[in-house]
Amino acid sequence: MAIKLSLFFVFLIFFTYYFTEVYSLVEFTNVQCESLDKDFALFEYCFLKSVNRSYKYVSVKVKLLKLPITKIKVQFALYKRANGYLPFLYNMTVDACRFLKTPNPNPIALYFYNFFKDYSNINHTCPYNHDVVLDKMPYHSINTKVTKILPFPEGKYMLEGHWIAYDINRAITKFYWSLT
Ligand SMILES: *[C@@H]1O[C@H](CO)[C@@H](O)[C@H](O)[C@H]1NC(C)=O
Ligand SMILES: *[C@@H]1O[C@H](CO)[C@@H](O)[C@H](O)[C@H]1NC(C)=O
Asked: Fewer Cβ neighbours under 10 Å: the N or C end of the chain?
């Protein structure tokens, strides 16, 4: 009886998990970029575009004015909306120059990095000696990745990134999405 009951619960958990995954849908709702040091980094554009109901994308271009950059960290924090956006689960700082060289990079950082890497030219180690572009990152490509690797509860989220070069905070990016 005990075994049957626990099997039933395993089944129930699996079943719930499976259907939560299948029906999760990610939708970008906004993107914001801010330069804190306009002698160092300038955003040429930063927008979310809705082509039609099923195709939306995000594009960002930041001009870097002091090249090459040999030391950069990203402090990123996840927020979930309750009464306003509140910190949720993750807040970490990643050395971007070391990140891609590490054999076992931080799995959470890797998780977020994987969304962006195919659409961005920051997919290499330091130095960075060019502008940084995120080109037409579509939200539907993210659906499968989000739900498969690390399922989140439904809700509205924001990923805030602080771009810290030579230990000075130079820019902030915020990506907003909802999970339904
Ligand atoms: C949305 O736009 C994309 C790109 O132009 C196109 O390939 C796709 O067929 C469109 N989808 C609908 C439902 O109109
Ligand atoms: C994240 O951690 C940094 C450094 O510890 C801290 O300054 C910052 O306020 C934290 N952010 C959130 C949203 O908790």
From this structure: N
Q: Note the maximum CA span of the chain.
A: 70
Whether ligand 2 lies within 6 angstroms of the CB of 89 is answered as no
Candidate from 73, 74, 75 with most ligand 2 atoms within 8 A of CB, to mutate: 75
Q: What is the pLDDT of residues 71-87, one digit of tens each?
A: 999 999 999 999 999 99
Query: What is the reported pLDDT for 42?
Result: 96
Let me know if residue 62 belongs to a domain: yes
Decide if 16 is inside a domain: no
Q: Give the number of whichever ligand sits closest to the CA of residue 138.
A: 1
| pTM, 2 dp | 0.81
Q: Give the contacts of 42 (CB within 8 A, at least 6 positions apart).
A: 35, 62, 63, 65
Read off the CATH number of the domain in which 41 is found. 2.70.220.10
Taking the CA of 53 as reference, the closest ligand is 1
Mutation test residue for ligand 1: of 49, 51, 139, the one with most atoms within 8 Å of CB? 51
Specify the DSSP element, H or E, that contains 92: strand 84-95
pLDDT tens digit string along 28-53? Answer: 899 999 999 999 999 999 999 999 87
Whole-angstrom Cα distance, residue 63 to residue 44?
Answer: 7
